[in-house]
Design goal:
mainly beta; Protocatechuate 3,4-Dioxygenase, subunit A; 2 helices; 12 strands; 26% strand; globular
Length: 223
């Protein structure tokens, strides 16, 4: 059993400060220094679009799905590292959201951040002293891109592969927005986002009635 410990929400890092300073990533993230790959021998995690279903104000919780939630149970664990791929980042803020097993989000109106006060399959947490995180959820379902979304009109009706959204922030690093995909999904190859980011695709292992996946984030240092 995974024994990663999620710290309490009352740590000294301010969630409000994170949200304020990370507003610049809403359009898709910032680039690291161009000499990064050559000098460090590793590279930061590939960023992705925020998507239309992001919502502000999610609760601090690492267990996104309760026992009554339909779908195959999934546990995702990993570590948030600095750009050297070796130094863990304790106290990094990890925000997570996803569709349910039927491919539906908890908001019926894409882009409406305040449609209701109920949050479902969303949460945020801080990494522990070793930079580790752990979430409990269900495998998300696929869904077609709705029509008339600003900037995404040409993709209307295209089925998106199953994915989980992450935003990862730490005060000395460039905030990251990304989507985590799953190996074997037939919709990855033709997806305009997932198809170009093979490093953001993980293998899910079967563990009894659970599926388990491991993914480590690498954040670029800020300037």
């Amino acid at each position: 059993m995974d024994k990663h410990r999620i710290p309490a929400a009352g740590r000294s890092i301010s969630r409000r400060l994170f949200l304020r300073d990370s507003a610049v990533v809403l359009g898709g993230g910032l680039l690291a220094h161009p000499l990064f790959a050559a000098t460090q021998g590793c590279r930061p995690t590939d960023g992705d679009i925020l998507g239309p279903y992001y919502r502000f104000g999610v609760p601090f919780q690492a267990r996104l799905a309760g026992p009554e939630e339909p779908g195959e149970r999934l546990i995702v664990t990993g570590t948030v590292f600095s750009e050297d791929c070796k130094t863990p980042l304790p106290g990094a803020l990890v925000e997570v959201w996803q569709a349910n097993s039927a491919g539906l989000y908890d908001t019926e109106k894409p882009g409406n951040f305040t449609e209701n006060e109920r949050f479902h399959l969303r949460g945020m947490l801080y990494t522990d002293e070793q930079g580790r995180y752990r979430i409990e959820t269900v495998v998300p379902g696929r869904y077609p891109i709705p029509p008339n979304l600003p900037g995404l009109e040409k993709y209307a009706g295209m089925t998106r592969p199953a994915h989980i959204h992450f935003r990862v922030m730490e005060s000395l690093h460039v905030p990251l927005t990304m989507q985590l995909y799953f190996k074997g999904d037939p919709f990855i190859a033709k997806d305009p986002w997932a198809g170009e980011k093979p490093s953001n695709v993980i293998t899910l292992e079967q563990d009894g009635k659970l599926r388990r996946g491991v993914y480590d984030f690498v954040l670029a240092r800020g300037f």
